[in-house]
Amino acid sequence: MTEESRKEKNALGYEHTLMFGRYKEDLGEYAKAEAQRAKSLKALRKKEEKLSSLDLRPYRSKWQRKCIGWMSIFWKHTFARLGEDWVFLALLGILSSLLSFAMDYGIAICQKARIWLYRDLTEHPAQQYLAWLAFPLILMLFSAGFVHIVAAQAVGSGIPEMKTILRGVVLKEYLTFRTLVSKMVGLTASLGSGMPLGKEGPFVHVASIVATLLSKLVTSFKGIYENESRTSEMLAAACAVGVACSFAAPIGGVLFSIEVTSVFFAVRNYWRGFFAACCGAMVWRLLAVWFKDEETITALFKTNFRVDFPFDPQELVAFAMIGVFCGFAGAFFVWFHRRIVEFNRKHKKLNTFLQKNRFIYPAIVTTVIATLTFPLGLGKFMASELTTHEQVSELFSNTTWTGTNPPLDEAIIISHWSTTQSNIYVNLVIYIVVTFLTTAWAATIPVPAGVFIPVFKMGAAFGRLVGECMAAWFPDGVRLGETVTKIIPGGYAVVGAAALSGSVTHTVSTSVIVFELTGQMSHILPVIVAVLISNAIAQSLQPSIYDSIIKIKKLPYLPPILTVSSVAHNVYVDEIMVRDVVHVWQGMTYREIVNILKMNKQFHSYPFVDSPESMILLGSIQRVELKKLLENQLGRERRLKEMARRQSIDDARNKLQFSDQPRKMSRFEIIPVSGSDKLSTEISPTSSPPLSPKSPVKSILKPSPLTSPYSTITSQDFRLRQAFETIFYKAKTLEDAYPDQTDVSAPSTPSIQKRVQLPKERVIDMSEEEQHSWEEEQLNKPVDFGQCHIDPAPFQLVERTTLIKVHSLFSMLGLNHAYVTAIGRLVGIVALKEVRKAIENLHSGVFNRMSESDDSGPEIEALSSELPSETHSETDEYISESRPLTRLYKSEVEDSHPV
User: Lowest-pLDDT range, 238-242, 603-607, 733-737, 764-768?
Assistant: First the structure.
């Protein structure tokens, strides 16, 4: 390279450096080096922090450190993964089984205590009657009072409510800890009293509450709990666990929960329910073994029917007749129970009296039932001294009660169901009739109770009655060719129990539950035949007991369409929808939002449209979101910020005004006085005598009565007077920053009566007139809907959607309402009330088609009536901060908190 070219290159490089700067190395390499440097610094910092933390920790040996490391690894791979479904479902089953066993233990203690009081406390009949009556009366009154005080939502079965919740409706306070405590304590007391009530339905509710609380308590489950779909899946599994922990029947529990609680069931939930039910049933039976109640894990009501030839095919006619009778009996039981409730509600004066005196009705019902079941009276025909488990076990026994010379164990069983005045046939009839009446009546008491177990016992007693009759009519058995088959009355009892319980609940899974309860499937064909026949008859006459309770309680549940005829296909959504829809639109003012919230307090959400003229549906806004918009615009915080802004402007203006004024000359003047040294010596602090306590020191600002040319505070001082006036004006407008907090006072001694109060933090608020004018100004401003959450895709239907499609969509997706649109325009809204009313009218044959020209439509309250009651105490807090808004919302606040 020549010298000239080198100089030229240096010159160009110099110019480049002056213009753009010069990189000493490649930019990518530089970035890598910086990243490596930052990484090494971070590792060094972590190492230093670890060393410093180790210095502060106590000394641990090598084995201690290893144990801690192993425990952390175990925790990481087991309990730290609680968010997985397997662990959640296992915990759900185990906890439910523990609660079920604890309740069974308490119920057994109460029942044994009642029998002990009756048998061993005294021998006088009157005293025995008092002991027999007092114990259940105390327990039932305690249950009614405890449930009423703690959580009234625990009253009843719980399956109708769970059916409604899984349908998509939110029932407040039904899945809380208070309800769990109320349900468990009340159910233990009511079942321990010996009343003809069941455990299966209430424990389904208990297991659902456990699933909900488990989702809330464990941090890893928070996402599952907030997800509506996963919540319904876990609740469906909890329903199966409730049945499994009551009968030790996991397969039947899953099928029963599907039939009872679900309209549309997702197959992906089946394994969840089955796994949780298996865990619950296994632990429940293991607890019985560990506590010496059972020798090993067996069926709850184990039978030993012959397997090679359990029944003759000709007996299927008798089994079918059992199914026919149980179908009519189940429908009559549901009708009779509903008539009792309607009778109590029909008499207004009686109903009002019983509501004011809540313990009278449970006391009357308990007294009558205890009197009917008294062992020295009518109870001796009903084996009333036996518990429910003992009664079912004897009804399923593999013996014939009408035989001659029975062995000792069979003779003991026969003695329970026969007396010197009657035989087993009369006793079984009395048992069936009295249990039927008392169960239907006891189910109306406001305590946690179910009806499945009493109905199951009635069915078993009826089947036993038919079996004993067949054994008496055919003492040598039924002959088929050369084979003679002995009649097994216990098999008839199993068939009757499955048939009657299936007809009352409208389920076929009771057949599977019976197989798991008995541990045998020898009578699978008769059981299925009887259950199907009884279901067919009962469903054609009455709804299930759970649907009947839903109607009685008026829960927002959508009934099924019983017919799929052409009439149901020809009913369209535009014939049942609400046409006058309350809506919000783009560009509306806050005043219009206030009016909408005031006039439509029952609505839970509002459609959001482009404009009232176009009615183009843009989305849906919750009522809570609209209240938040008002809070942000008119709340206390916004008002205080506005007042602070105004005050800062006023202070700046006053400061500017004072700075512009000329400074006044000082009125102080120093005049030399002769003998000043002497005067200063006399008034020096060192030479002045101490002040006497009797002569208090006078304030230097206290005005002297004598006029002096040296006075510094006069009425002519404009600046000082203005400063004091400003301070007094601000003091009038000051408010506490936290008005709800209590005063913090200094501790006082007994000798001092006054307390020293610490100064509060004060803020400046508007006066009443300023607040009113400011709010009027804010109410006239347009609403910025970008500050709230808008559902951009609410569920929509077209005008010509058939009723069957609407019913399927509402049931499958758990919808509360849907908007009806025509080419994007909002033309109406349909809710559960309209769909349910249309289906009921369709079933009764009185459906009236609405005229398309009628724009009035049904009542606007259609949407709101299907939604749960909403408490606005939290969202209406800003109302008390604004007096004009208080006037607007006064009626709303009163209606939101009814007495």
Answer: 733-737
Helix (H) or strand (E) holding 607: strand 605-609
Q: Is 581 helix (H, G, I), strand (E, B) or coil?
A: coil
Distance CA 553, CA 558 (A): 14
Residues 496 and 457: their CA atoms lie apart, in Å, by 9
The type of residue at 794 is P
Give, in order, the Cα–Cα distances in Å from 373 to each of 186, 366, 381, 608, 764.
22, 11, 9, 63, 74
Residues 757, 734 contacting (CB under 8 angstroms): no
Closest CA to 450 of 154, 148, 788, 698: 154
pLDDT tens per residue across span 636-682:
888 888 888 888 888 888 777 766 555 555 454 555 544 444 444 44
- Nearest Cα neighbor of 440 from 335, 597, 292 is 335
| Residues 546 and 159: beta-carbon distance below 8 Å | yes
What does DSSP assign to residue 388?
H
Q: For the purposes of burial, counting CB atoms within 10 Å of the CB of 686, is it exposed (0-12), middle (13-18) or buried (19 or more)?
A: exposed
Phi, psi of 397 (to 5 degrees): -65, 150
Task: Pick the closest to residue 198 from 370, 428, 393, 443 (CA basis).
Answer: 443
**Integer CA distances (angstroms), 823 to 724, 796, 819, 850, in order:** 69, 11, 12, 22
Q: Using CA atoms, how far apart are residues 802 and 806, in angstroms rounded to an integer?
A: 6
Instruction: Give CA separation, 595 vs 338, 393, 598, 733, 869, in Å.
Output: 43, 66, 5, 31, 20
Q: How many CB atoms lie within 10 A of CB 34?
A: 10
Give the integer Cα–Cα distance in Å for 474 and 469. Answer: 8
CA dihedral sign, ordered 320, 322, 323, 325: positive
What pLDDT does 324 receive? 93
Per-residue DSSP letter, 57 = S
| Residue 655 to residue 637: CA distance in whole angstroms | 27
**Are 607 and 854 in contact, with CB atoms under 8 Å apart?**
no
**302-341: b or e for each residue (b if 16 or more CB lie within 10 Å)?**
ebebeeeebbbeebeebbbebbebbbebbbbbbeebbeeb
Please choose, from the candidates 245, 289, 248, the residue with its C-alpha nearest in 3D space to the C-alpha of residue 101: 245
Q: Dihedral sign for Cα 141, 145, 148, 151, please.
A: negative
Average pLDDT of the residues in 80-97: 78
Distance of CA 626 to the CA centre of its chain: 24
Separation between Cα atoms, residue 169 and residue 554, nearest integer Å: 13
Contact between residue 114 and residue 132 where contact means Cβ atoms under 8 Å apart: yes
Rounded to whole angstroms, the Cα distance separating 358 from 141 reads 9
DSSP 450: B
Helix count and strand count (H, E) for the chain:
34, 10
Pairing of strands 584-585, 734-736: unpaired
Please give the structure tokens belonging to residue 142.
């305690």
Instruction: Say if residue 533's pLDDT is above 90.
Output: yes
8 A C-beta contact, residue 848 and residue 575:
no
Residue from 402, 513, 539, 529 nearest 466 by CA: 402
Contact (Cβ atoms closer than 8 angstroms) between residue 193 and residue 438: no
- Residue 430 · residue 381 · CB < 8 Å: yes
Cβ atoms within 10 Å of 223's Cβ, excluding its own: 11
The string of DSSP letters for 10-39 reads HHHHHHHHHHH---SS-HHHHHHHHHHHHH
Alpha helices by DSSP H, listed for 120-249, are: 125-150, 159-166, 177-192, 200-217, 222-226, 228-247
Average pLDDT over residues 569-573: 82
- Integer CA distances (angstroms), 809 to 557, 806, 830, in order: 14, 5, 12
**To which residue do tokens 């006029």 refer?**
707
**What are 307's two structure tokens?**
């397997």
- Does the CA dihedral 270-276-280-282 come out positive or negative? positive
- Tokens coding 374: 């008294």
